[in-house]
Amino acid sequence: MVFNIALSAFVLALPLLLVDAASTKRSMCSDGRSAAANSACCAVFPVVEDIVDNLFTNECGDSAHGALRLLFHDAIGISPTAGGGGADGSIATFNATELTFPANLGIDDILDDLGPFLLKHSNVLSAGDFIQLAGAVSLVQCPGAPRIPFFMGRPAPVAASPPNLVPQPTDDITTILDRFGSVGFSPAEVVAVVGGSHSVAGADDVVPNFEGVPFDQTPAQFDTQIFVDVLLRGTAFTDGQGAQSGESETAVAGTVRLQSDGLLARDPRTACTWQSFVNQQSKMAQAFGEAVLKLSFLGQNQHELTDCSEVIPQAIALKTGAATFPPGKTVKDIELSCNDAKFPNLRTQPGPATTVSPIPQAVSTSTAAPAS
C-alpha cells in the first residue's frame, strides 16, 4: 500500500455508441503518428500506449478487469441526498477514506497497479479522467467489448465519496435498483452494466482464497455467456461463506456466482432483460456501452468536457461468441424466470465437464516513475 499512501497526498446526452471520428477533420499531432480533432487530445495518445503495453500488457486480464471495476466504483459515488462527486477520481485521491468502505474491498489491488501510471501522467489527466480513460481502454483489450467514447477535463475531486453508495453483492434487488435509480439508471440499464461488466470479471477478495475465480466460463472475452451461466441451477457453499459474502457456487466448476447477479437474473423487474441478452452480442454490447458512458458523466457537466474519443484503440471482434450450455446441461437446468419470452435454443458443449481456470493475477510491468 506504499503507492496508496503517496496518492492520498496527490490532490489532484451523447448518442452512442461506436466511436467514429472519420467524419471529423483531424490534425496531425506532434508525434507524427496520431491525429486528433482537438489538439488537447494529442497528449493522451502516449498515455494510452503506456497503459496498454505496461499496465494491461495487451491482455483482457486481471488489470483490465480491475480498471473496469474501478471505473464503476468511482463513478457511482454520488447521490442526490448524500452528495459525492461521481466520476471525479475521489476513489484514488481520497483512497485512505474510500478503501475503508466494505464495497471497495479489493480495490486497493488495482489502485496499486494503476496508481503509478496515474501519477506519471498527472500533468495530462486528472484522477477522474485517468480512471475513465483506463476503464475505456481496458474494455478494448477484451474481444467483443464496445469501444466507448472518452471525454477529458474533469476537475480534481474535492472530497471523498460518502459511504454506502456502491451496491454490494449481498444487497437485495430493491436496494440495488433504488441505488442506481437515484442517479438515473433504469432496471434495464442496471442489468446491462452489471451483467456486461461481470462477463469479464471474477471474485476479488470477497471470499478468502477465491481471488480470480471467474463469474462465467469466458472471463477473457466480453460475451453473453454470463447471462446463461448465472441462470443455471447451482449449489451453496458448504462452509457458509457464500451466504455471508454474497457468492455461491454455480453449475460450472471453477466459477462463482454473485448473489446480486442471481437476483437480477430472476427478479420480475429484471429477469426478461437479463434473458434478452443471451446470444444477442450486439444488443448487449450497445446497451452496456451506453450505460458505461452514462456512468462516466455522473457528477460532471458533459458540455465542459473535451471529446477525445479518437484516443481509444479499435475494438477487437469476437470470433466465437455464441453462448452455450456446459457439458451435460440443457435448458432443463435453467431456472426460467421470464414468462414473456422463450429461452433461446443453445448448443450443449461436447465432452466431459471441465473446470474453468482462475484468472491469472496481475504481475506489474510498470515503467511509470515513482511518486515524488
UniProtKB/TrEMBL annotation:
Residues 347-372 are annotated as: Disordered. GO terms for molecular function: heme binding; metal ion binding; peroxidase activity. Keywords: Calcium, Disulfide bond, Glycoprotein, Heme, Hydrogen peroxide, Iron, Metal-binding, Oxidoreductase, Peroxidase, Secreted, Signal. The record marks R69 as: Transition state stabilizer. InterPro entries: Ccp1-like, Haem_peroxidase, Haem_peroxidase_sf, Ligninase, Ligninase_C, Peroxidases_AS. The active site is at H73 (proton acceptor). Heme b binds at H198. Pfam families: peroxidase, Peroxidase_ext. Ca(2+) 2 binds at S199, D216, T218, D223. It comes from the Eukaryota. Residues 1-21 form the signal peptide. Its EC number is 1.11.1.-. Ca(2+) 1 binds at D74, G86, D88, S90. Residues 64-312 form the Plant heme peroxidase family profile domain. This is Peroxidase. It comes from Hypholoma sublateritium (strain FD-334 SS-4). The lineage of its organism: Eukaryota, Fungi, Dikarya, Basidiomycota, Agaricomycotina.
